[in-house]
Design brief:
heterodimer, A: 393 residues, alpha/beta, Rossmann fold, 2 domains, seven-stranded mixed beta sheet, six-stranded mixed beta sheet, globular, B: 300 residues, 8 strands
Chain lengths: 393, 300
């Protein structure tokens, strides 16, 4: 039987980590993810986990220690936000190139500058090409569930890539909501033991890791990483199926909310999906056929599946909680539209940059997006596809 | 590595101090030693080795050591195998860009030895000055010019910074005299529980500009002039391992090296005098520290 609880997103992440019981957690405090290592170090101090907690002196060292621990043959986890992830940046690439299935809780927050501690997705978008699997979570339940599924995906022998579970800073990390937890022993069985093929602490087979890798081999090694990301797609679906068997909760690349008969739709990630669902329900009452595609798996990017799911629509709005500052639009918009183009789906599509630095996105903002889409359907005019939502005049 | 390089004898002697049957995980900072010993698909290391980046040999190894503790505790590793943790970094990766990761790992008390092989500049990228570069040295980012005669700042004293972390063992050594000093300090550092630090001078023929067959003489001159004193600090107590009967003038050490050539031009005598004064002052400081830290409580 599952356990009903009321937890914040950070508490949910910490409890998932407790149930996973990794060998090493190395973390450094940064708002709004700080509570995760705080809660976790309490579990360590009280002996409820077998983990060695490494209270590092920086995020760069946090990821370095995770790389060391995972290469050693252990399971390593961490949590961070914003500038913490930026400071890890060098090691983020090294972790994935060494094919180490480290799992991170990323509590999304605006990257400086100027300094801001509130939510947007600029931290995650900065590492989107780093070779990490990236899962996004609408609420505390999804943040928890994604973490429970993380190791099964990351450690699959056809994958062997690090994975980050994203949730919105403060909006979900600090909001207490109802949650269904899985029993400890069920999680333990589901996650299973980590049996790496090669690892530093195997004295029977000493190995060298992290070579100087020159023109003759680096290209092939990078291709291997690319293949691992391609392979991850099927593994993510397989793990979701097994997860459904123990919880009844369904996961895929994305959630389609009232999308199959919709005429206009929003594509977005994390907590904004909740607000969007509320607006859709209101609009449906008025006969507006609005829908949502809430992306869960941002890396690997399910381009073909997204294009197919949107193919019947008359207009689409992609919401980006970070701007790419490329004079064209946000990263999600670029990915979605290029996926549509390649898969021969041609629908009027617009981009909205929104919620930067924690700017509240209200239901009226989302409603205005749907109004704009209706206008586009009616007139066929897009005008500027690169738009800002909720910007003060 | 290059002929006449001081680093390989250091690595060899440190690894030789590992007892038979013990396994080691070695962490290497990016630098000459790492790029010349581990080029895919070959490795020179017979123990396990990990390289990740330039500044984090210490923090990477701290993760390995933490995993070892956790896995040993849970019975995931064989009980009868002892694993030791050894990091190697050059002075660039240790004194400069890696000092935060080093300080953090030492403060956290990981059971490891960090070995700095100090060649006094960023040699791998082409001889740029570091905070370990001696004063007046001619490097590619502190060139001896007509207005500025080389590096104008004194070198940092890293061993003392490590002593400030209250480590159980800190040693300063060099590959000399059948490597006895180096071997003994390596053995002590590896088999002393807790975080230990070794600073080992490792001359670089390209950066220092001495003939490749002169490595051992350069090492000897570094010690005989007291430019590089051999000492150890055991639980805060300083022990100077060698006190030259006739301390040679520092010119003897400077003269065979091209990086100090400009100091010997007429009119630049002041540079040699200033260099000598720094060596003398630091040697005296070391003698004082030995005297103070070995004073018994009744002696006042």
């Amino acid at each position: 039987m599952s356990i009903r609880e009321r937890l914040s997103g950070n508490e949910a992440a910490a409890i998932a980590m407790k149930q996973i019981n990794p060998d090493v957690v190395a973390a450094f405090p940064i708002t709004p993810s700080t509570e995760i290592p705080q809660y976790f170090s309490t579990f360590v101090s009280n002996g409820t986990v077998d983990t060695e907690f490494v209270a590092v002196e920086s995020e760069h060292s946090a990821m370095s220690a995770c790389v060391g621990a995972e290469a050693a043959g252990g399971r390593a986890m961490t949590a961070t936000s914003a500038n913490g992830l930026s400071f890890m940046w060098e090691m983020i690439y090294i972790a994935s190139s060494m094919r180490l299935p480290i799992v991170m809780s990323l509590v999304n927050r605006a990257v400086s500058g100027p300094l801001n501690i509130h939510n947007d997705h600029s931290d995650a978008m900065g590492v989107r090409d780093a070779g990490w699997i990236m899962l996004f979570s609408e609420n505390n339940q999804e943040a928890y569930d994604n973490l429970i599924m993380a190791h099964r995906i990351a450690e699959n022998k056809d994958v062997m890539l690090p994975l980050m579970v994203c949730q919105d800073g403060f909006i979900t990390s600090h909001s207490i909501e109802n949650i269904e937890l899985i029993e400890d022993d069920v999680v333990k069985n589901f996650v299973g033991k980590y049996n790496p093929e090669h690892y530093l602490l195997n004295d029977k087979e000493p190995i060298s890791m992290g070579p100087l890798d020159l023109q003759s081999y680096l290209f092939e090694h990078k291709r291997g990483q690319a293949q691992a990301m391609i392979n991850a797609k099927q593994v993510i679906l397989d793990v979701a199926k097994d997860f459904e068997k123990i919880t009844g909760r369904k996961y895929s690349f994305f959630e389609e909310y009232k999308l199959d008969d919709a005429e206009i739709a929003i594509v977005c990630m994390n907590s904004t999906a909740g607000t969007t669902k509320f607006v859709i329900d209101e609009l449906r009452k008025k006969g507006v056929k609005a829908g949502l595609l809430k992306l869960r798996v941002f890396r690997p990017f399910p381009a073909e599946e997204i294009a197919k799911a949107l193919s019947h629509l008359k207009a689409v709005a992609v919401l980006d909680k970070a701007d790419s500052l490329n004079a064209v639009g946000g990263a999600l918009f670029t990915d979605v539209t290029s996926g549509m183009q390649v898969n021969k789906v041609s629908i009027p599509t617009v981009n909205y940059i929104y919620g930067i630095g924690g700017r509240d996105t209200k239901s009226t903002d989302i409603e205005s997006v749907f109004n704009d889409l209706q206008e586009i359907v009616k007139t066929g005019n897009i005008n500027n596809p690169y738009r800002y939502l909720g910007l003060r005049g | 590595m290059c002929a006449g390089c001081g680093a390989p004898p250091v690595a060899r002697m440190i690894m030789r101090a590992l007892k038979e049957g013990d396994h080691a995980v070695v962490s290497g900072a990016t630098g000459c030693m790492e790029v010349s010993t581990f080029i895919y698909p070959y490795t020179s290391w017979t123990d396990s080795f990990i390289h990740t980046a330039f500044e984090n040999a210490a923090s990477t190894l701290s993760g390995v050591e933490a995993a070892y503790k956790a896995m040993k505790r849970q019975g995931k590793l064989p009980e009868n195998v002892d694993t030791k943790f050894i990091a190697f970094g050059g002075d660039g990766g240790t004194y400069d860009i890696g000092i935060q990761a080093l300080s953090g790992a030492m403060e956290r008390g990981h059971d490891m030895v960090y070995v700095c092989y100090d060649n006094g500049a960023y040699m791998n990228t082409g001889i740029q000055r570091s905070s370990a570069t001696p004063k007046f040295a001619d490097t590619t980012t502190s060139p001896a010019g007509t207005v500025i005669p080389g590096k104008m700042q004194s070198r940092k004293d890293l061993a003392k910074i490590m002593v400030g972390h209250h480590l159980p063992y800190v040693g300063q050594s060099i590959a000399l005299n059948n490597f006895k000093d180096l071997y003994e300090k390596a053995e002590k550092a590896i088999y002393t529980e807790g975080p230990c630090f070794l600073n080992v001078l490792a001359p670089c023929p390209r950066g220092w500009g001495y003939p490749t067959d002169m490595l051992m003489q350069i090492n000897k001159l570094a010690v005989e002039t007291c430019y590089w004193p051999l000492y150890e600090v055991i639980d805060g107590r300083y022990v100077i391992n060698y006190k030259p009967k006739n301390k040679l003038p520092v010119e003897e050490f400077l003269k065979p090296q091209k990086r100090f050539k400009h100091m010997f031009k007429p009119g630049n005598e002041w540079m040699i005098q200033e260099f000598q004064k720094e060596v003398d002052d630091r040697w005296q400081e070391l003698l004082d520290l030995e005297a103070i830290t070995n004073k018994s409580p009744n002696e006042e």
